Amino acid sequence: MLNNLATDVREMLHEQLEYRELLYRMAARDLIIRYKQTIMGFGWAIFMPLINTVVFSVVFTQVAPIATPVPYPLFAYTGLWAWNFFAASVRFSLNSLTSNASLVGKVYFPREIFPFSNIAVCLVDFAVATVPLVVLMLWYGVAPGKSIVLLPLVLLIHVTFTAAMGLVLAIANLFYRDVKYLFELVIAVWMFSSSVIYPLDRLTGKLALIAFLNPTTVIIDGYRAALFNLPIHSMTSLVSTAVLSFVFLLGAWLYFHRSEYQFAEAL
């Protein structure tokens, strides 16, 4: 069994290396299509989290003020910045197979390229959206400290967990088309159950336990700790989320790889 697992993993990695040019070209295609005939172009990657930051800042600084370890606009933007990458990635990955039905049923190539290319495009948006984050940090005089060394690790966990969710949702939507209808409800509830717009210190008891079991909450907390030199609420949760994310990705990728022969029939 372990030999079969190792063989599958080697095959998956070899295919990704062999078809890396295709992944690059599909990501470039998706990026062009997304912003084709738009006036703002990459500006949309900045505009949406900024608008949401303004709205939440009015609510949580004027209507119902809450204490945050850094100025609230900076706190909220960081959460939205991280959340939007995850939500957009899984949203586009969800339809990545069904929207490319003509390609899925033809010549062979690793089909995980479809969700991976969508995630790569969202990663470009994520990088663009970093610009306002840096500006806000300069504006409020918040500088990173020694904890910035955690940033690459948090980013790796973030991308790994997102890729795993993208693979799962892509294959689920292929076999069960009502998944895309449930997704929008689940993602909305998921956002408000994560610490996107409120600090973890506001939660106590069972709510705090649930929050720390939520991978996106741990990831967002990790970003804030790394960027603002804040203490991580639970290093155990961060390590557990890292292990979970890598195991989740391995399992999702293996299942995706072994199910590819059924894709053409499901379309």
Description:
The structure is a single chain. This protein has 13 helices and no strands. The protein has helices spanning 2-18, 20-35, 43-63, 72-94, 101-104, 113-128, 130-139, 151-175, 179-192, 205-213, 215-228, 235-259, 263-266. It has 267 residues and is mainly α. The chain is globular, with a radius of gyration of 19 Å. The model has no long low-confidence stretch (mean pLDDT 87). Helix 2 (20-35) crosses helix 6, helix 8 (151-175) packs antiparallel against helix 11 and helix 8 (151-175) runs parallel beside helix 12 (235-259).
Q: Which blocks of ≥5 consecutive residues have pLDDT under 50?
A: none
Following the backbone from N to C, one meets helices and strands in this order, namely HHHHHHHHHHHHH
* Global mean pLDDT: 87
How far the N terminus sits from the C terminus, by CA atoms, comes to 31 Å
Q: How large a portion of the residues is in β-strands, by DSSP E?
A: under 5%
Give the helix tally.
13
Give the beta-strand count: 0
Give helix % range. Answer: over 70%
The biggest sheet, with number of strands, parallel, antiparallel or mixed sense and barrel status, is: none
Radius of gyration: 19 Å
Shape: globular
Structural class: mainly alpha
